[in-house]
Amino acid sequence: MTARSDEGDVPTGAPWPEHERALEAGIDFDRANAARIYDYLLGGACNFAVDREQAAKILTQNPDMGYVCRANRDFLRRAVEWCLARGITQFLDLGSGVPTVGNIHEVALSHGADARVAYVDFEPVAVAHAREMIEGFEHVSVTRADMRHPEAVLDAPGVRDLIDTSRPAALLTVAVLHFVPDPELPSILARYREALAPGSVHVMTHGSADHDDPELAASTRAIQDGYRGSATEVVLRSRPQIHELLGGHDLVPPGMVDIVDWPEPTPGARPTGGYAAIATLP
Ligand SMILES: C[S@@+](CC[C@H](N)C(=O)[O-])C[C@H]1O[C@@H](n2cnc3c(N)ncnc32)[C@H](O)[C@@H]1O
Q1: Ligand 1 centroid to 175 CA: how many Å?
Q2: Distance (Å, whole) CA 203 – CA 143
Q3: Fold exhibited by the domain 2-280
């Protein structure tokens, strides 16, 4: 079984036949998915009626969802800048999504860095647009693959030939893991981290209902309800479960905090219910 990539076919392995069928089938016009819903909520045009209907359902459940998406995107930019400021210029971005304002390679290149960015996503619309956008960039690739297959992703030409595993890199899993319900997820992520050089970091945001504030917990459960019936339903994890996804590694201060509070509280921002953290790899 194979999935398309920039430079060839990426074997995706055997254990998830439903997803492999979806990959083979190409674009799913019948069911909304995370990539296109997120694009719509961010004001993009890479979405279909079915995605807009699902987004309307999510917004009915939680009218703040557009704000949550923008806050997540702002965090991603801050995290990339944080990495660049520490000399980390390579990014492996799992679940990279539809290109939108402030893409990682744009942020990285605007710093004048010799950046390398490997985008990975399994959604064909996101991948097609990303491929168009990166045309002409030498050190940027797009691979269509399911991130649950680390060996296939790491061995894809767009990743293997671009990311220098002898130098630190940032593994980005931003707003993707709550769409991945697999019990094996901790070991899948560990495999990616093992492939990276010491001094690398793992950047994450993740939806959670594990909050002291019951209203905040209810607001993220409402988002979860809004995604029901889509191709990418949401799994909310507790703080300890999210820390486990980071391999229990040391977290950069201030640790695991609301997305708007990393690395320091954004003035006037209300909490999103999503956690952000960056783990350092020994
Ligand atoms: C909400 S978007 C986040 C995009 C980007 N990371 C950001 O934070 O702005 C989630 C993305 O994860 C992708 N995704 C979900 N499950 C995936 C999987 N198993 N493998 C690869 N991509 C996946 C979706 O297709 C979607 O593009």
Answers
A1: 7
A2: 19
A3: Rossmann fold (3.40.50)
pLDDT beyond 90 at 100: no
Q: Where are the domains of the chain?
A: 2-280
Element (H, E) at 142: strand 140-144
Buried-state track 183-194, b at ≥16 Cβ within 10 A, e below 16: eebeebbeebbe
- How far apart are alpha carbons 34 and 61 in whole angstroms? 16
- 137: exposed, middle or buried (C-beta count within 10 Å: 0-12, 13-18, 19+)? middle
pLDDT in tens, 268-282: 999 999 999 999 998
* C-beta 180 within 6 A of ligand 1: yes
Q: Is 231 in the pocket of ligand 1 (CB under 6 A)?
A: no
Q: Which residues, including other chains, have CB under 8 Å from residue 107's CB and lie 6 or more apart?
A: 77, 80, 81, 84
Q: Give the number of the atom of ligand 1 that is nearest the alpha carbon of residue 76.
A: 8
> 155 phi and psi, to 5 degrees?
-95, -5
